[in-house]
């Protein structure tokens, strides 16, 4: 379980690092406003807080290991949505899933 927690921390750090670089490219490619770039960068932390607040109920029902597995499935789903996104709205849906996955797994 400790290695799973370390993996999650790596996921978060990787996302923060990559997102900063991607934001510059997305701003130019999709002509995003500064507000949209801020939403893109800050959304994962905000949504992760919501996921963390829900994690106790999910963990009580599923147990810690299954909750972590579900969180990683949600996280990978978010990554796939972000990878295939063709618009700002779609990438924000992916960021929502990423945030929920991060929040669920960080709190257990």
What does this 3D model show about the protein?
- Helices cover 92% and strands 0% of the residues.
- The termini are close together.
- By secondary structure, the protein is an all-alpha fold.
- α1 packs antiparallel against α2, α2 runs antiparallel to α3 and α2 runs parallel beside α4.
Topology:
Elements: H1 2-30, H2 34-62, H3 64-84, H4 88-107
Helix pairs in contact: 1-2, 1-4, 2-3, 2-4, 3-4
Largest sheet: none
Put simply, the count of helices is 4
Into which percent range does the helicity of residues fall? over 70%
The arrangement of helices and strands along the chain is HHHH
Mean pLDDT: 89
Termini separation (Å)?
10 Å
Any idea what the radius of gyration is? 14 Å
Q: What is the percentage of strand-forming residues?
A: under 5%
Shape designation: elongated
**How would you classify the helix and strand content by structural class?**
mainly alpha
What is the β-strand count? 0
Oligomeric organization of the protein chains: single chain
Low-confidence stretches: none
Keywords:
108 residues; mainly alpha; elongated
In a nutshell, what does this entry contain?
The chain is mainly alpha-helical and 108 residues long. 92% of the residues lie in helices and 0% in strands.
């Amino acid at each position: 379980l400790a290695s799973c927690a370390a993996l999650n921390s790596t996921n978060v750090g990787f996302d923060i690092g990559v997102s900063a670089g991607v934001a510059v490219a997305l701003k130019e490619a999709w002509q995003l406003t500064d507000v949209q770039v801020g939403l893109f960068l800050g959304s994962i932390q905000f949504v992760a807080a919501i996921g963390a607040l829900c994690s106790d109920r999910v963990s009580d029902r599923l147990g810690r290991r299954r909750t972590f597995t579900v969180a990683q499935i949600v996280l990978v789903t978010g990554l796939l949505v972000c990878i295939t996104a063709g618009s700002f709205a779609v990438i924000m849906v992916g960021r929502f899933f990423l945030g929920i996955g991060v929040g669920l797994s960080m709190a257990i």
